[in-house]
Specification:
This is Permease. By secondary structure, the protein is α+β, with helices and mostly antiparallel strands. The chain contains six helices and nine strands. It has a domain of 124 residues.
Length: 245
């Protein structure tokens, strides 16, 4: 989703637990938000153009840092192994970042009579947490071992510093669950329909930000679209175009 402006169509929450007021049954009863549609879908959160640009940026940054580190160390004796290992580390981290950019997100929707609720989190297999922690511990021990073997800690300020920082991140990794909800249906005035990406976005006044609904199939796409025609104000404008954000 995007930063909220003037009249945003979404309210955001962040939690690590699946239990949240936005998805609490008693909360729905109090607001009379009767559930009408429920679905889940796995999709890449970012638009294709943005992913491509970020991939080139990450690859270029990794290459530039590796070349700079090699240039800094070229005059130092007995650092060939460290430079090679540094390059390997730099590109490994770059590859990992590209994978993260293309990481799919699980979206769970609950569309009610008054508003829509959403929770989303990154999709990882069940063994992801112990695997990441194992990789982090192995990386830390590897670079500390190389530093001790070479008899110098200078190696730790090169590409290895980035690797150790990433290892620390993986060691504390947690797959957070984020919660969002739309504003009441009658507060939306614009709708963007992107059939290619199977997305429908509702907006208040700013058509560059809104509540994004990703649909898993064409039938549900049409059902949700017809539902919006029935609950949004009669003056709401529906536009079919590519969603760029």
């Amino acid at each position: 989703m995007h930063k909220e402006k003037a009249c945003s169509s979404i309210e955001k929450f962040s939690d690590t637990s699946k239990a949240h007021p936005a998805f609490d049954t008693s909360h729905d009863k109090q607001t009379e938000n009767k559930t009408l549609f429920e679905w889940s879908v796995k999709s890449i959160k970012f638009p294709p153009k943005e992913i491509s640009g970020l991939q080139f940026l990450v690859l270029g940054a990794g290459t530039a840092f590796g070349l700079y580190s090699a240039w800094v160390m070229k005059g130092l004796p007995n650092y060939a192994i460290e430079v090679i290992l540094g390059f390997a580390t730099s590109y490994s981290i770059t590859f990992l970042l590209i994978l993260l950019l293309r990481q799919k997100t699980v979206f769970i929707y609950n569309v009610g009579s008054q508003k829509a609720l959403l929770q989303h989190y990154k999709y990882y297999p069940n063994f992801a947490a112990p695997l990441f922690k194992g990789i982090a511990i192995f990386t830390i021990l590897l670079f500390l071992g190389v530093a001790l073997f070479s008899g110098s800690l200078l190696f730790l300020i090169g590409p290895a510093a980035i690797a150790l920082g990433s290892a620390r991140f993986l060691l504390n990794w947690e797959n957070k669950i984020h919660h969002e909800q739309s504003l009441p249906w009658n507060e939306h005035n614009f709708v963007t329909v992107d059939r290619k990406r199977s997305m429908i976005i509702i907006h208040c006044t700013d058509t560059t930000v809104g509540f994004e609904a990703r649909l898993p199939n064409e039938d549900l796409f049409e059902q949700y679209l017809q539902f919006l025609h029935s609950v949004l104000p009669p003056t709401a404008e529906f536009t079919e175009k590519a969603w760029e954000w």
